[in-house]
Amino acid sequence: MENIKIEEHVDDRVMVITIDRPKVRNALNNESLNEIAETLEAVAADDRFRAVVVTGGPDVFAAGADLNEMASLDTVGILNDQRQYIWRRIAAFPKPLIAAVNGYALGGGCELAMHADIIIAGDSAQFGQPEINLGIMPGAGGTQRLTRAVGKSLAMKLILSGLFIKAEEAVASGLAAEQCPADETIERAIKLARRIATKAPIALALAKQAVLKAHELSLTDGLDAERKAFTILAATQDRQEGIAAFLEKRDPEFKGR
Ligand code: CO8
Asked: Is 108 among the residues known to form the active site?
């Protein structure tokens, strides 16, 4: 992989993906997004890993779409661009994904962070959708995921003005789950991923799906989806193991069965 680095924390069942294009401030060209999607797809099929952390550099998580690549695209070019399908592959990742954000997460970088299930924001983190400064608008879910995360008024402020919010406001508005000192962001994200990775894999996948449905369905349909997922889990060996371990006062050993 040319644009990302991968660390396998096999004992913890956690993989860490680091975007590594410092010369262009981790701008996401199609190749780098494709590498992220490919890695996530490999992890989805690999029992050794139960959670993933995606991170960038100390000053920039990702500065958005690679404008060198996007600049030449006209309407037909964007219509035919494979990028939209790569984003869908990232969104389809079934295991827990945590974004550890230090520095700027802008445009497509903010949208990538929002593809994660949980965002941990270092003190230096700044989130924004500055596409409006370029005469365009967010195109990888920014208008939808940001609005659902922080509500209409703040989403409008960011998307229409191009202003950024810092870590504290990101947490206060619900975009990020927690704030920490910048030199602890990745460790905090890995620690959380490690904890999540001790849980039953099928329960994690169904719980993730059910929470994501909350953004898509009515309350009645969402509750219905939750009930179905909850019912399916009753048939898993891991559910028997989890309850037995609790009653026997020992740690459960989940096998994803
Ligand atoms: N794409 C390509 N190159 C970039 C990008 C980018 N998004 N961001 C930075 N770079 C490059 C710069 O061109 C510069 O290159 P060089 O060294 O050759 O001059 C190098 O990275 C360093 O950049 P800066 O000097 O600006 O670095 P700073 O540390 O001073 O600032 C920032 C860092 C704040 C991240 C700043 O670089 C910045 O504001 N970047 C652009 C942010 C942005 O506007 N992002 C939104 C992009 S648009 C998008 O994501 C979605 C839709 C695009 C669709 C387009 C359809 C036509």
From this structure: yes
